[in-house]
Amino acid sequence: MGTQSNRGVVYQGPGKVVVQDIADPHFTSPAGKKIEHAVILKVISTNICGSDQHMVRGRTTAPAGMVLGHEITGEVIEKGGDVEMLEIGDIVSVPFNVACGRCRCCRELDTGVCLTVNPSRAGGAYGYVDMGGWVGGQARYVMIPYADFNLLKFPDREQALEKIKDLTMLSDILPTGFHGAITAGVGVGSTTYVAGAGPVGLAAAASAQILGAAVVMVGDFNQERLAHAAKMGFVPVDLNKHDRLGEMVEQIVGVPEVDSAIDAVGFEARGHSGKEQPAIVLNQMMDITRVAGKIGIPGLYVTEDPGAHEKSAQQGALSLKFGLGWSKAQSFHTGQTPVLRYNRQLMNAILFDRLPIARIVNAQVIPLEEAAQGYAQFDAGVAAKYILDPHGMLR
């Protein structure tokens, strides 16, 4: 890499991202410490994520000037002296979690809450607010620390490039959807409801299906996304019809409840009125999930939401009907997905044609330079998942 060979997607303030020249990556931590456990990747594919949109909408405390992007797949082009299990030319999937592999949480595969990579809280991620200052990967090149622990190497280069539109989903949305389904207790014969027909919701629905669910319902207000969900074999639930979700579920499965519920919406949830109600999905989940059932919550919730309409929600406090969930003895599972726990088996499901996730989430490839348009279209609610192609290797 020469000087200024790197370009990336930079957040400039609410509603504005630009693609511009950024610094080339070096073997240096955000604290300025020289590190040898890292690699530099030539980014083959990097995706726009719904959680990026929360920042770009100005709904977090993200500072201007941040390089975005935590869904990264790439080729190793340089490696530090402490990298033993990867070689130049390997194609790898990067879990969005930055994890050291050494702390108590990492040793228990709770890599979403690594204790060492972020001085401000547990858990690190690339290109994300309050997640340790690691530079994002919506770029041509990126540095990945603790490479031997974090990176998943694809077994065959040609096969990987052939299936790259599917494999690129292993960095975040597919394991995140799968984690939602697993923690919601989905299994053979389960009745399952997924809130949200965006990419994570569709990944959760696909995961529920591969885990053996008898019926997978997907709820949303967006007609285009509902139509796509139906086309993919899921049962669409049009939330525009009325606000009694249990009644709509009953029309489909015969009872107003499900075994498993998955919240793939998060803190920008809206009610039937169209107004923001950040706790509405969680309250609906408790309402429709059976007694002693489980609720998986891969949707993002934040400690601070400066753009919230409710004052309490600005501090991350939600109006939960917690007594309902308690009285029904329900289980909730929250938090960043530990991608490493799932990505190898999901890779195999893709490589052996069991999980056509690119088709399920309607993956669309665009050049890195068109990232701003991709963000705008995704924000408008198109039924697509945008993959950025920094080097023209996907087209």
From TrEMBL:
Keywords: Metal-binding, NAD, Oxidoreductase, Zinc. GO terms for molecular function: oxidoreductase activity; zinc ion binding. Pfam families: ADH_N. Residues 37-154 form the Alcohol dehydrogenase-like N-terminal domain. Its cofactor is Zn(2+). The keyword Transmembrane helix does not apply. NCBIfam families: fdhA_non_GSH. This is Formaldehyde dehydrogenase, glutathione-independent. It comes from Pantoea latae. The lineage of its organism: Bacteria, Pseudomonadati, Pseudomonadota, Gammaproteobacteria, Enterobacterales.
